Amino acid sequence: MIVEMRTYHCAPGRLPALNERFTQTTLGFFEKYGIRQIGFWTTLAGPSNHTLTYLLQWESLAEREQKWNAFQADPQWIAKRAESEAEKPIVERIENQFLQPTAYSALK
């Protein structure tokens, strides 16, 4: 198992729009493509409260590449994402990391 940690740094005041896009649109596409989420978090205390961090679970990097690329290329997703940013951009930058559990991790 591999865990992908993705952190979205939103433009000021745009975190509510990102949360709405996930609940109304993105999670449906995740389901369509078999993308498994572990959880989503907003930053309570830290350098910025304009961030959303979430974890995705993958069996391998090959699975991630296949499913993520299919999701990103979906014409309906592209249209919905553009629609959600018609007023102004939501995300300024994205960071992602791929994490591999240790032998002593509770999550494996």
UniProtKB/TrEMBL annotation:
Query: How far does the signal peptide extend, from start to end residue?
Result: none
Record-annotated NIPSNAP domain positions: 3-105
Q: Note the superkingdom of the native organism.
A: Bacteria
This one is known as: NIPSNAP family protein
Instruction: Specify the species.
Output: Pseudomonas typographi
